[in-house]
Amino acid sequence: MSARALSLALALLLAPVAACADDGAEPDAAQVSASFEEAYAQTDLGKEDSGGCSGVVVPDRSGFGKRVALTFDDGPNAVTTPRVLDVLAEHGVKATFFINGSRVTGPAERAVLARIVAEGHILANHSQSHLDLKNASAAKLASEVGKTDAVLRDAGVTPRFFRFPFGSASCSGMSYVKGLGYTVVGWHIDSADWCFATTGGASCPARTFRYVPDAYRSDLLGYVMSQLRAKDGGVILFHDIHASTAAALDGILSALEDAGYAFVQVDDAVYLPRLNGATPPPARFVGAACEADHDCNFSSAVSSGICHRFTPTDGTPAEEIGFCSLPCEGTCPDRVGASPTFCTTLDGGATGRCVAKSAAVNESCEAIEGTAPAVVARFIGTSSAAAATATACVPR
Questions:
Q1: Which fold has domain 3-264?
Q2: DSSP string of 304-351?
Q3: Is the dihedral of CA 205, 209, 212, 213 positive or negative?
Q4: How many CB atoms lie within 10 A of CB 136?
Q5: For the chain, what are the domain ranges?
Q6: Are 342 and 359 in contact, with CB atoms under 8 Å apart?
Q7: Structure pTM?
Q8: How confident is the model over 137-184, as pLDDT tens digits?
Q9: Is-contact 376 343, C-beta < 8 A?
Q10: Rounded to whole angstroms, how far apart are CA atoms 142 and 165?
Q11: Reduced to 3 states, what is the DSSP secondary structure of residue 165?
């Protein structure tokens, strides 16, 4: 692809926005790439300028329990956004649409907004013209936020969420937007669909977004799944203005469902408590009570928490209950303040599971419902761990 063609493709992120002559000048293709790479550095490399002023960093950094919040930026588009909505409806998934007010140019776009609201999705503010607002004047920032705020209210919603274009914000900008009552939403995962869109969905060129590994240069689905596995879920960024994104979305959602992911919206205070001004619950760990895998919102270096469900053989209680565990071979991680752990088997030797050792912190297993202390052998599996036993809290 020629440099001119690449520039035109990236410009789709901004069209049909008119260029401005003041501090809100439209970024060119190179600036778009640089802005998304800076956003990646803040989310994945921890290189944020200051903790409270990043428009990218979400205050909730873990504990997603394979929950995903889908977000779509830069619409509405009268052709591609309805395709995205069709796929979401087929999967029964709700999402958040961060719109640019300048794209609402007539009845077709207003009809798209009405459909978004009617189908239970969240409409949110992404500024009027998708300009980099980090260095914008106070007047320009107020105009960019206010014009789209009016569009959203005309669509019948009271907007709660704002996303800075490219996640590019200043401390004064963050303060202004929050002062209006908005919650600023960044993302944990950039799907890089904007980069794949430069080639019609075929590939993401390294010169456009260097952080996509070479193994996924021609594999949007693979890249998205690799990022989700690394973070166990979170807020993910897509763009509903791209035909290639609309075409890929069904496969992405199917892959997520097959891998055990479920979907929430950005206003979910259970999985995104800090974002929504709530106090996060105490982090669960091995031995904590659970009903399903997503309750065990923790992970080790190699696996995510799971819920071990069982019915105590002594019949007390009679119903099925569960405690959090981790798949293991040889050893298990420990956590300060939690019960020490031990890797054993709970299925006759087929697999290893982390259990809590009997200790004062769990009242010698009495605090872990349905368990009792017993001497159990270490599950070694393919590890090099030595044989050992421990008194652990295992199902009665």
A1: TIM Barrel (3.20.20)
A2: B-EEEEE--TT-SS-S-EEEEE-B-BSB----TTS--EEEE-SSSSSS
A3: positive
A4: 24
A5: 3-264, 293-395
A6: no
A7: 0.73
A8: 999 999 999 999 999 999 999 999 999 999 999 999 999 999 999 999
A9: no
A10: 14
A11: helix
How many other CB atoms are there within 10 angstroms of residue 250's CB atom?
15
CB 387 within 8 A of CB 378: yes
Alpha helix segments (H runs only) across the chain? 3-11, 29-44, 80-91, 107-118, 138-154, 171-179, 193-196, 220-231, 243-258
Of the candidates 258, 277, 255, 256, the residue with the CA atom closest to the CA atom of residue 266: 277
Question: How many other β-carbons are positioned within 10 Å of the β-carbon of residue 190?
Answer: 26
pLDDT tens, 81-108? Answer: 999 999 999 999 999 999 999 999 999 9
Cα angle: 15, vertex 20, 25; to 5 degrees = 85
In degrees rounded to 5, what are phi and psi of residue 252? -65, -45
DSSP lists the bridge partners of residue 355 as 342
Torsion, CA 12, CA 18, CA 21, CA 22, rounded to 10: -80
Position 27 scores a pLDDT of: 64
- The residue type found at 80 is T
What pLDDT is attached to residue 312?
84
pLDDT score at 81: 98
Give the position of tokens 């009617």. Answer: 118
Q: Which residue has the tokens 């640019």?
A: 100
DSSP E strand boundaries for 31-121: 67-75, 96-99
Low-confidence ranges of the chain (pLDDT < 50): 1-22, 48-50
Residue 156 confidence (pLDDT): 97
3-state secondary structure of 132: coil
Contact 16, 102 (CB under 8 A): yes
Per-residue tokens: 43: 């989310």
CA distance linking residue 322 with residue 292, whole number of Å? 8
The crossing angle, in degrees rounded to 10, of helices 29-44 and 3-11 is 70
What amino acid is encoded at 19 in this protein?
Answer: A
**Count of residues making up the chain:** 396
Q: Which amino acid is at 275?
A: L
